[in-house]
Amino acid sequence: MFLLPERLWYEVFKVGANDIYPVALLLLGIVCVQKEQWLFAGILMGLSIASKFSPAAFLLIMFLRKDIQRNFFIGCVLGIMPLIVFLAWDYHAIMANVFILRMSLEFDSTSLYSITPDTLHVLFPLVQFCAVLYFIVRNVNRTLYSEEILVCFTLLLIVIEVSFQEMHANHLIWFYPFIAFIVGTHRHRLFLTKGFVS
Q1: What sign does the dihedral 103-104-110-116 (CA atoms) show?
Q2: What confidence score (pLDDT) does residue 76 get?
Q3: Contact 72, 41 (CB under 8 A)
Q4: Residue 19: which of 168, 154, 153, 145 has the closest Cα?
Q5: CB 181 within 8 A of CB 150
Q6: Among 59-63, 100-104, 175-179, 194-198, which stretch is predicted with the lowest mean pLDDT?
Q7: Which of 17, 59, 88, 111 is the 20 to 30 A CA-CA neighbour of 50?
């Protein structure tokens, strides 16, 4: 934590960005996937979606495979139940805050939109759509491995973030834990490749 950038500390402790909670749920879900505890993995990822639509929605794309366990999707439905309750309570508020607000953001100086001619802005949503489609088609017939899921998910997040209307500092909270998880999972292989471990 001490190595994290000052701006991230500002977002978490002064502004109050709470992205670490849905990200923590996803990390716990990945641990459950590694242990093949599919129901618990689904519940945790569903809860993550209920607390913040993304990044969980992009992680779920990685699970669209022929060999996925049915208990995983049952767990996802159970985890999303709090969101369904709030949808029944105030449908318009949930749609406005979760979906419409994100899709109607004006770009700012942090994004590639600000240095790209207006006529080329259509390329950014197209890049996002193509990236999502690529991973769906790529993964559908592959066997599910948690390490591969995490790497592909992180790559997709990077594409989505770079082509979004704003690169918000609290979105860094999405990347640090997942990259740390990947490095931690593959640390022995990384050290072996570099000749640190015999």
Answers
A1: positive
A2: 93
A3: yes
A4: 168
A5: yes
A6: 194-198
A7: 111
